[in-house]
Amino acid sequence: MNIILLGPPGAGKGTQAKMLVDKYGIPQISTGDILRANLKAQTPLGIEAKKYMDSGKLVPDEVVIGIIESRIKEDDCQKGYMLDGFPRTVAQAEALEQMLTQMSSGIDDVISIEVPNDELMGRLTGRRTCRNCGQGYHVMFDPPQKEGLCDKCGGELYQRDDDNEATVGNRLKVYADQTQPLIDYYQNKSLLRPIDGLGEIKEIFGRIGQVLG
Ligand code: AP5
Ligand code: MG
Predict the structure, then answer these.
(1) Top mutation candidate among 88, 161, 195 for ligand 1, by most atoms within 8 Å of CB
(2) Where are the domains of the chain?
(3) What order do you get walking across the sheet with 81-84 strand by strand?
(4) What residues pair up with 156 in beta bridges, in sequence order?
(5) Ligand 1 site, residue 134, Cβ cutoff 6 A
(6) What is the per-residue pLDDT across 61-74, written as a single tens digit (0 to 9) for each?
(7) What's the pTM value of the predicted model, to 2 decimals?
(8) Most CB contacts within 10 A, which of 27, 111, 132, 158?
(9) Does the domain spanning 2-26+79-116+174-212 belong to CATH 3.40.50.300?
(10) Whole-angstrom Cα distance, residue 71 to residue 42?
């Protein structure tokens, strides 16, 4: 089961992916999380990527394609995986298709989480994430039991550097310009599964489950 989670910043890709990992037993591969982990470890890749991420721009295609190419060959991906935030340009989608064809593999479903723009700013500026385990929260829509602390592991919650209004504005524009064309791209391949991303987090999880079976 090889799945792509597509959707604008704040659509709920990461939130749903974490729940789908438990349900289907396949890993979530988030290029954003991988880049942030590199930054935390102060690798040259992470330091270089930060320049793009802080301004809401995309990291160059060849960098993220390289990350995915090695990640999907790892042992835990043999039964399948969920790509969260990749591909994000047509060039990335084409590179993915090429590498999967070479591996005699392919994508089964592209879950496209649809949320109107006016909802996304509030979701992103209110997001909090656990520094330790990566679990996501929202100050209003999905608050932790104890303010500032993760329910799962007790870790400290933080706000992402790119979740301020100015950077979110750029990210939404970059999404419209560079990522939205993938909706038509996957529609033309009959892989697109549109999901209404408005409503309770659990409701949306149910909608995705109905599509994936
Ligand atoms: P990335 O980390 O992928 O960020 P993104 O795509 O902008 O998406 P987000 O993680 O912000 O949103 P999400 O859909 O995961 O939302 P979440 O579930 O957390 O990428 C960051 C940067 O890395 C990029 O800008 C780029 O620079 C670089 N990058 C990454 N991949 C790249 C690539 N392939 N190519 C080039 N560059 C790349 O939810 C958001 C909030 O809403 C949370 O607080 C959550 O609790 C809340 N929420 C979720 N669902 C609901 C709901 N139903 N109702 C109310 N609130 C909800
Ligand atoms: Mg995410």
Answers:
(1) 88
(2) 2-26+79-116+174-212
(3) 28-30, 81-84, 2-6, 109-114, 192-196
(4) 149
(5) no
(6) 999 999 999 999 99
(7) 0.96
(8) 111
(9) yes
(10) 19
